[in-house]
């Protein structure tokens, strides 16, 4: 273990699309004293990748061709090639192939 994060964390962003409760849902339930679900179901396997400034042009050109891409752009005021500008979750039945495809498409930028 290298970090304990008592808050929503980048590593759980996939849960927004891939699970019946997202990490944000359960965080709100916990901090408001409500009951947490007994279990959280993975609805579909997913691959999540960070999006850097240099990735945004490719996304603009290809996003409409990929309904399985779920984009979350953070609205940062200044775009830099190496700055994290958002993340993307891809729902898939083949995680390994999707990881390879995304790595190739985005030239290993993540």
From TrEMBL:
Q: Which GO terms describe its molecular function?
A: 5-(carboxyamino)imidazole ribonucleotide synthase activity; ATP binding; phosphoribosylaminoimidazole carboxylase activity
Q: Start and end of every ATP-grasp fold ATP-dependent carboxylate-amine ligase-type domain? A: 1-24
Family matches, as SUPFAM superfamilies: Glutathione synthetase ATP-binding domain-like, Rudiment single hybrid motif
**Which residue ranges does the record assign to the Phosphoribosylaminoimidazole carboxylase C-terminal domain?**
46-100
Which EC number(s) does the record attach to this protein? 4.1.1.21, 6.3.4.18
Q: Name one GO cellular component term.
A: cytosol
Record's keyword terms, sorted: ATP-binding, Ligase, Lyase, Nucleotide-binding
Q: Pfam families in the record, alphabetically? A: ATP-grasp, PurK_C
Entry superkingdom: Bacteria
Report what the protein is called. Phosphoribosylaminoimidazole carboxylase ATPase subunit
- Which species expresses this protein natively? Staphylococcus aureus
- Annotated gene: purK_1
